Amino acid sequence: MKDPLFGNKLAGAILVVLLLFIGLPVIVNTFIALSGGHHGDHHASEENPFDLAYIPYAELVGGAEGAAEEEKISLGCLLAEASAERGARGSALCTACHSLEKDGANGTGPALWNIMGRDVASVSGYSYTKALQGLEGAWTYEKLDQYLYDSQAYVPGTQMAQKIRKDGKRADLLLFLGQQVTDTPVALPECVAAEDETVAEDAMESDA
Question: Is 26 helix (H, G, I), strand (E, B) or coil?
Fold first, then answer.
């Protein structure tokens, strides 16, 4: 048989729960205030009308965006900690299109022997895209690092589509190319501390 008072009982139960949820913190903080105690450095506000003691999630994870800004590390420092052996293993992704051996033939991509320090788009017998031909200068650690990070973004229109977003993985590969896939190992860029790099950049902006 259906209880004719079921609706009233349900409404009463919900009301009790709401009163406990809202009222209990107020009662607790009232007793704390009357006793002269402190429950953290918090104050009533529009965001915290009942003066509840809690730490917002955004503060726990380091800011409103939920993540602290990563410390910038120079390429020279990354290369100083890199491993050419790991780079050799990681170069397997290159061999699908490129040869890594001395006097190796061109494949889908140009041969990579002596790439570090070599003029961009200069391998004999290989047909480069106009986009890559427009990239002036030689391949340096810095330039190749940007190319491997996102080739399409660095050289829009290039045939190569590669994104290696992990700094350590790119550094390993760059070290392997610059030290082992070459007749003469190419000197590494200097390891610059983050604060020194910032000072240098500020100085360049001031001069500009």
Answer: helix
Q: What is the mean pLDDT of residues 67-75?
A: 66
What is the pTM (predicted TM-score) of this model?
Answer: 0.62
pLDDT tens digits, one per residue of 32-59:
555 554 444 444 455 444 444 444 444 4
Under DSSP, is residue 100 helix (H, G, I), strand (E, B) or coil? coil
Number of neighbours of residue 86 by Cβ within 10 angstroms: 16
Q: At what angle do helices 167-179 and 141-149 cross, to 10 degrees?
A: 140
pLDDT tens digit sequence for 102-142:
999 999 999 999 999 999 999 999 999 999 999 999 999 99
Whole-angstrom Cα distance, residue 90 to residue 104? 19
CB 74 within 8 A of CB 194: yes
> CA 76 to CA 114: how far, in whole Å?
20
Task: Mark 67-84 as b/e (b = at least 16 C-beta within 10 Å).
Answer: eeeeeebbbbbbbeebeb
Burial (CB count <10 Å: 0-12, 13-18, 19+), residue 159: middle
Return the bridge partners of 119, or none: 138
Query: Are the C-beta atoms of 176 and 87 separated by less than 8 Å?
Result: yes
Q: Report which of 28, 141, 151 is spatially closest to residue 78, judged by C-alpha positions.
A: 141
Question: Which pLDDT belongs to residue 15?
Answer: 72
Backbone angles phi, psi at 185, to 5 degrees: -55, 140
pLDDT at 16: 72
Label each residue of 73-90 as H, E or C.
Answer: CCHHHHHHCCCHHHHHHH
